[in-house]
Specification:
The structure is a homodimer.
Chain A (H helix, E strand, L loop, with lengths): L2 H18 L4 E2 L11 H10 L10 H18 L6 E5 L2 H12 L3 E6 L2 H12 L3 E6 L18 E5 L1 E2 L4 E2 L2 H10 L4 E5 L16 E5 L11 E5 L1 H12 L10 H8 L10 H17 L1 H19 L6 E2 L11 E5 L4 H11 L1 E2 L1 E2 L8 E5 L6 H13 L3
Parallel strand pairs in A: 1-13, 3-4, 3-5, 5-8, 8-9
Antiparallel strand pairs in A: 2-10, 6-7, 9-10, 11-12, 12-15, 14-15
Chain lengths: 380, 380
């Protein structure tokens, strides 16, 4: 066999392998690319018997303690923020309304996910109110939030549109609404943002986005104001749920336990990835995130047929970057996929005209440079 | 170095390895021993990109379809039973009461887990009633269940005590209470029991017991009577939850999807293990289960200082076998652990006087023979 035939066959096999196996870079905004250490952690978990580990054992308690303490360190959250585990951020939408609202919640809606939080409050029978910003935009700084709402729901990073709220915007409500609980959905931004934990009462995320883990775990941080509110609901005879009520969460968390048999392996893996992030350094992760988003926005702003969906640079998300791809969407998606790059589809009504690119710690600088080079090549 | 020194060091290392690594047989009743194929399935899942898989993709839909259809086949459940995924059986306790009860539920309580189902109904504000059987016993056949209860909660296999309800007992309520929904907690018995699905309306389990999987997934089967009841609650203005209400589950399941981002990897692994079980044959699994329980009960009934906690042979669980170990509990636990055998602790008040042994498909005949031989050796 001569060399060229060999190379041809090799190339063909390689290409087919490429098509049928997972892509080399997965930019879907969640479930997203798995952090590169996870498979090793999983192997170690099996060696150590973690998948069989009872959740009332000392070994589990030490995993719980390690994961929650390291997470607080990574997020820069004070010790008086409790860390609880749910099945998903969707569950936390429900539990937060159940535990923290008697009557009135207020939601700042600028996309599908912020709106779902509002809808869940409505389904739970609350007088939920919302103000809506146009898709791809943030809110005006003088936004009118009902003065006596019990809970203000903010979506720090709207995954459907790639809009992020500025910290000044998030932080204003502590002054304007000192009696309301400020609950921040940071599902697709953490661990990137550094929140000022004196200005918010609760924040939550799910692990399949910025933490590069398989889906099936939501993480909910709450302060003592939230605990007191849930206790007062309970004292007044309101129903705040059963096994995932805040008081029952806390009663168990004090023993480093969970109310029910949780996703033990998920909690273990989260702890391991948080250790990896701490070793890399949160500042390094932040600066890399900013570098990667900068080079992608740069080409979107200088491309013949692509553009950034979010125009206002101050509200552009660092972690979910949405590109207007118009009628080239399918073609671009195909071309990138052929190269081994999997973009995320546009969301909802924009499914056929946009592509989304997650920019999480799992996405390396090299992968982002490769993505940008590829978009450069596809200019013509 | 002479040979005896070498052997001594080798033995020491081996022993320490033994203590710090997972035991060779894990008989805790859940989380329990992982089915032997799971680690391979997990490796394949990573190769195929399952941990990053979006839950709105065709690939996920085909996993959902495969898992639910094979599960129905394995359980012998008819096609009109819907299969929904929750985070845990604890969640299903809550969701089933929320969706199926306006006012009255009735619970047959003979241990901690059946009682928790009752407690959850109470916490949700229902007029929950219960009758209680002594620990280690089943109910008398003429048990008086309130005639106009909306839901009868039965725990097929009480994990805390090792008591199983007979199928005749379970099946009687369809005749005596034709208007009540019959909901069966089969958390620690499935896939062993063959239920008569014309006699029950719902059954649920979690995967970390009889399916030999890591914890973090509950599975809920419901028939059309349950769907109709949830719809009627909704129509009457009752709150039945948000993303995990039965109508919303079904709306998504019709597309082979889930309401929220689920534990995708857990659903994939469950599908793979169910395929393995089907290949092995459910009859083989049942006969092996009965063989293994027979040899363990045999030695418990003929042991100088051990005995079976459940005296009535007809109500002895096939899948969770509870031994009275009295003041020898700690000693026995230590001796078995040194051999590489990890028993489950007794539950609650019996923690210091009983040991529990799970008998799931993950536990091989050889492991059970080893366990029995070891108990034989420890007779003196």
């Amino acid at each position: 066999m001569d060399l060229s035939l060999f190379l041809e066959i090799f190339h063909k096999l390689h290409t087919e392998y490429f098509f049928f196996m997972k892509p080399s870079a997965h930019f879907g905004p969640g479930p997203s690319q798995i952090y590169f250490t996870v498979e090793d952690h999983l192997r170690k978990a099996f060696r150590e018997g973690i998948p069989s580990l009872g959740h009332r054992t000392q070994a589990f308690e030490s995993i719980f303690k390690n994961t929650t303490e390291n997470l607080r360190t990574l997020l820069g959250a004070p010790a008086d923020f409790h860390v609880f585990f749910a099945a998903s951020a969707t569950e936390i939408w429900e539990r937060s309304i159940q535990n923290l609202v008697i009557e009135k919640s207020f939601h700042l809606v600028n996309g599908s996910f912020s709106n779902r939080y509002f809808e869940i409050a409505t389904l739970l029978g609350k007088s939920a109110e919302k103000i809506t910003a146009p898709l791809g935009e943030a809110f005006s700084s003088d936004v009118k939030v009902h003065p006596d709402t019990e809970l203000i729901g903010l979506t720090h990073n709207e995954t459907s549109t790639g809009v992020s709220l500025s910290m000044d915007f998030v932080n204003q409500f502590r002054t304007t609404h000192p009696h309301s609980l400020i609950v921040v959905d940071a599902v697709s931004s953490l661990p990137y943002p550094q929140f000022d934990y004196t200005k918010i009462d609760s924040v939550f995320f799910s692990v399949q986005k910025g933490f590069g883990l398989p889906a099936g775990l939501g993480v909910w941080l709450v302060n003592e104001r939230c605990m007191a509110k849930a206790e007062s609901l309970l004292a007044q005879g309101h129903r705040i749920g059963t096994y995932h009520s805040l008081p029952f969460y806390l009663q168990n968390a004090k023993k480093n336990q969970t109310p029910e048999t949780p996703n033990v392996l998920g909690i273990y893996l989260l702890g391991k990835v948080v250790e990896d992030f701490l070793r890399r350094g949160i500042q390094t992760i932040r600066k890399e995130t900013e570098y990667k988003s900068a080079i992608l926005y740069q080409i979107l702003d200088n491309h013949p047929f692509l553009s950034g969906f979010v125009k206002d640079k101050k509200t552009r998300s660092q972690t979910v970057i949405v590109a207007n791809t118009g009628e080239k969407t399918d073609w671009l998606n195909n071309e990138l996929t052929k190269m081994g790059i999997q973009p995320g589809d546009g969301y909802g009504a924009n499914k056929k005209t946009q592509l989304r690119f997650a920019n999480f710690p799992a996405h390396s600088k090299e992968q982002y440079e490769w993505l940008v080079d590829s978009l450069e090549k596809l200019k013509n």
